[in-house]
Write a structure and sequence with these properties.
Order of helices and strands: HHEE
Strand order of the largest sheet: 1-2
Structural class: mainly alpha
Distance between the termini: 34 Å
Shape: globular
Number of helices: 2
Strand content: 5-15%
């Protein structure tokens, strides 16, 4: 699958989820299993919180944010 096709598919699935009220968001880093940044207590600008969906504000559901 090409990156362009993957991006279009991801966008279509996100829009579908928003229309039907079921959106379980994962931040890109969590989706790829890179939790080094999100597990830290602080970032470059201070305290951090889970990433949010730019369309609906749903917080990242990855368990690494709840440790």
């Amino acid at each position: 699958m090409t990156p362009r096709l993957a991006g279009r598919l991801a966008t279509a699935l996100t829009r579908y989820a928003h229309r039907h009220g079921v959106h379980h968001y994962l931040a890109t880093s969590c989706l790829h299993g890179e939790h080094g940044y999100c597990q830290g207590d602080t970032g470059k600008v201070g305290a951090k919180k889970p990433a949010e969906c730019k369309f609906c504000g749903a917080a990242c559901r990855c368990g690494c944010h709840h440790n």
